[in-house]
User: Fold this.
Amino acid sequence: MWEIEFFLLPSGRCPVDEFLSTLDKKTDMPYIDHSLSLLEEYGYKLRRPHAAPLRDKISELRVKTINGKFRLLYFFFDRDKIILTNGFKKKQGPVSNSHINKAIRYRNIYIERD
Assistant:
């Protein structure tokens, strides 16, 4: 079993919490919670359609609800932690470099702090 942790900025803000607070609790959050449970259980072994590697050791948790497609970006840390960095509503095409670069920046901050 993996431990999921939400990344905190040095200011104390939590980008994932901020994103999740914008979602509908009845129509989106059950799907998000289910996907997080799968990630917590399977870790590296979770693959498409639920998760996929992106680049530079950043992966995406893929969630589809009636309100659209959502992504939570994350990385693995140590042997048992998954750090969620940021989330967004997916539009068309692949995940944008700006979202991936933000996750990479957050990973670097996390590693420097630890």
Remarks:
- The chain has a mean pLDDT of 97.
- The chain has one domain: 3-113.
- The two ends are 21 Å apart (CA to CA).
- The chain has three helices and five strands.
